[in-house]
Fold this protein.
Amino acid sequence: MIMTTTTIVEGRPVSSYLGIVTSEIILGANVVRDFFASITDIVGGRSGAYESKLQEGREEALRELENKARRMGAEAVIGIDLDFETLRDGMMMIVATGTAVKLS
């Protein structure tokens, strides 16, 4: 399945639009990760623990988006957008949206 942030797939015109697909992933807080991230904030640098968790969440959101599109009979998802929101109590939400399409 082709997954892209662009609205076209080079050399493959869209033959039909199947609809918008979305996925929402909510990541919970982790006391140990939060503790080490706070140390990183004090001494400076990047928080590898949070970056790893964000990457995991992003990959899961895109995987779910692909699975939903596949069930619709899509060959590609175009115009993918990823949004990240911080919720209360250290929880984070990742939302992926795109348009499921068939290609010529």
About this structure: The longest strand covers residues 14-27. The chain has one domain: 2-103. Residues 2-103 form a domain with the Translation Initiation Factor IF3 fold (CATH 3.30.110.70). The chain has two helices and four strands.
